[in-house]
Specification:
With about 525 residues, the chain is mainly beta. It contains no helices and 49 strands. The protein has an eleven-stranded parallel beta barrel. The protein has a ten-stranded parallel beta sheet with strand order 1-5-8-11-15-18-23-26-29-31, with no helix packed on it. Strands 4-7-10-14-17-22-25-28 form an eight-stranded parallel beta sheet, with no helix packed on it.
Length: about 525
């Protein structure tokens, strides 16, 4: 505009239907505001908000970005507030969509930022029609999630800093994007701020991003939908680098887990330097993978027919998860469960077992949870264990060779028609193996004690139809010495009955082998 530059004020405006109030400027539905390169938009105070019900387009250039900041920021547009000081920006109301997303009608707001320098104002707080933010710099800009009915693109941006969350006293700089369409988060750089989180019902792409040093309680890369559905689009999380995150390096909770679309993610010095997965595994996966180790998460997944719910990872029918010798698979908490509807194979050895354990167990894979303590002897918490569920006509297969399953609520629980074979070590679990519906072959398992699965108090580490004998470390009692009397010639041998008894207190023995009572 010619003449005086325009600033966003703080006068209150009301909306009739639905009723809500805000301060600043409302771009009405059907209205367009275009900001060219070099334009500077300033806001008077913390209540000054630009509410977008129509369309806001700001398209600068690399040499002359469009700037959004507060009236106190002299570095853009000069000393607009006339205080004569080179003063820094303060927080202002920012760009908002519907002020009350729970009561508003269908969203109409559209936001397009390209080569924008956006300082100390929050973005979000409602639902837009679509959002595109590219080639821009955001400083202290993110506290509320951004949602859209359509698509969201967040590409080639630089994010730093944080502002107080609108509904809490904490600070956050996390970019959180959720869309009814597709979400594309690509080639961004985040420093000293929060993480990058996104989920699009039509598909999610989070690739090529770098995150360095996040705020307390902030994570790294995340794609999470609390209500995952078979209709969700594919999730691609690839080639991201996360360093110094205060949470998980990468976290993915999705109905469709496709390992070919979850590769190339790396990280270091994160609180939990892992890629946490929960959802349904739809493609074969062999562990370990290059980059971040995989951990079992706690996102909830439902099974349609028959209906049941669980948390963690489900191996779908026809899909195989292979855990190689020396691989370590950790689980986040007591609800983190590996549910097998397809095939689980462990290929460990005595020297290099395939380990399944809690995230708090430092003795395998190091200090994965970042607590800095040697928690191997008494992990802070347990995990859900391996669950094998047979549903006609599918018979899931679990073949665990050279396995070491630790610190689970139940190490292996089988129900229905299943094929389960375990060779290795099951020690430190509340319950080792349970079986309902078919037998589990758990012979030659190391239960951590020469008494095998039998506790001193009379309880057992194996429950149901579990074949446990012989177990590793079983000590058979010595054979009795047989004394044969000397032969006396020409003497009649009387009739006699010979009875031999050899007791272990655990089962019946013959031919030097122990057989479980049936």
């Amino acid at each position: 505009m010619a003449g005086l530059p325009v600033a966003i004020g703080y006068g209150e405006i009301t909306n009739a239907v639905p009723y809500w109030r805000t301060r600043g400027i409302i771009i009405d539905p059907g209205g367009d505001v275009d900001g060219a390169g070099g334009a500077v938009v300033k806001a008077i105070n913390s209540s000054s908000t630009l509410t977008v019900l129509g369309t806001l387009v700001a398209q600068g250039t690399a040499a002359a970005p469009a700037v959004f900041t507060s009236i106190a920021d002299d570095s853009a547009g000069g000393d607009t507030n006339g205080d004569g000081d080179a003063s820094a920006a303060f927080s202002w109301g920012g760009v908002m969509f519907w002020a009350d997303p729970y009561r508003a009608p269908e969203p109409t707001g559209t936001l397009v930022f390209d080569h924008v320098d956006f300082r100390k104002g929050s973005i979000g707080g409602g639902t837009a029609e679509s959002v595109s933010m590219t080639n821009s710099v955001f400083t202290d800009a993110f506290s509320n999630s951004i949602t859209a009915r359509g698509d969201i693109e967040f590409r080639s941006n630089t994010v730093s800093g944080s502002i107080p969350h609108a509904y809490s006293s904490s600070n956050t700089g996390s970019v959180s994007l959720s869309a009814g369409g597709a979400v594309n988060i690509t080639d961004n750089r985040v420093t000293g701020s929060g993480g990058l989180a996104g989920f699009g019902a039509a598909g999610t792409t989070i690739t090529g991003n770098t995150i360095t040093g996040t705020l307390p309680w902030s994570g790294g890369i995340s794609s999470w939908n609390s209500s995952v559905s078979p209709t969700d689009g594919p999730v691609t999380v690839m080639n991201n680098t996360v360093t110094g995150s205060a949470g998980d390096a990468v976290q993915v909770h999705a109905y469709h887990l496709r390992p070919s679309q979850l590769t190339g993610n790396t990280g270091s010095t994160n609180s939990r330097n892992v890629m946490v997965l929960s959802g349904r595994l739809e493609q074969d996966l062999t562990l370990p993978v290059a980059g971040l180790p995989v951990a079992i998460g706690y996102g909830e997944i439902t099974n349609a027919v028959p209906y049941w719910r669980t948390r963690g990872i489900i191996i779908d029918p026809g899909v195989t998860l292979t855990v190689q010798a020396g691989a370590v698979v950790k689980a986040i908490d007591s609800s983190s469960t590996l549910t097998v509807l397809g095939t689980l194979v462990a290929q460990g050895t005595a020297a290099a077992p395939a380990v399944f354990t809690s995230i708090a167990d430092d003795s395998a894979g190091g200090d994965t949870n970042g607590d800095g303590t040697a928690s191997s002897s008494t992990p802070a918490h347990r995990w859900g264990g391996i669950r094998v569920t047979g549903t006609d006509p599918v018979v899931p297969v679990v073949d665990l060779a050279g396995v070491d399953v630790r610190w689970a609520v139940t190490a292996v629980a089988a129900s229905g028609a299943t094929s389960v074979r375990i060779r290795g070590r099951l020690a430190g679990n509340v319950l080792g193996v349970s079986a309902v519906g078919s037998a589990v072959d758990a012979r030659m398992v190391d239960w951590g004690d020469s008494q095998g699965p039998y506790r001193a108090d009379g309880s057992r580490l194996a429950d149901g139809a579990v074949i446990v004998s012989p177990w590793y470390g079983l000590v058979l009692p010595p054979l009795p010495t047989l004394e044969i009397p000397p032969h006396v010639a020409d003497r009649l041998c009387p009739d006699f009955i010979f009875i031999g008894v050899r007791g272990l207190g655990r089962g019946a023995a013959r031919d030097g082998r122990l057989h479980e009572h049936q």
